[in-house]
Specification:
Layout: H1 8-20, H2 27-33, H3 38-47, E1 50-53, E2 58-61
Antiparallel strand pairs: 1-2
Length: about 60
């Protein structure tokens, strides 16, 4: 993957896949690789109903 998708639903899937397949250790390393600000990504995903769970290493829906 050369870039992170802009569509929030596809972005959640892509980020979780990359973290699940252990291509990246955490969200920060993933964002660094794709030259994205981790806090900006978290804020964007929060607007679309997702939060990053550090323990599970994935974006999860708000409960």
């Amino acid at each position: 993957m050369d870039y992170l998708p802009q569509d929030p639903d596809i972005l959640v899937s892509a980020v979780n896949m990359l973290l699940r397949d252990e291509e990246f250790d955490d969200l920060e390393s993933l964002c660094n690789y794709f030259d994205r600000d981790v806090e900006e990504l978290k804020a964007t995903m929060l607007q679309h109903g997702f939060v990053y769970n550090v323990e599970q290493r994935q974006l999860r829906p708000l409960m």
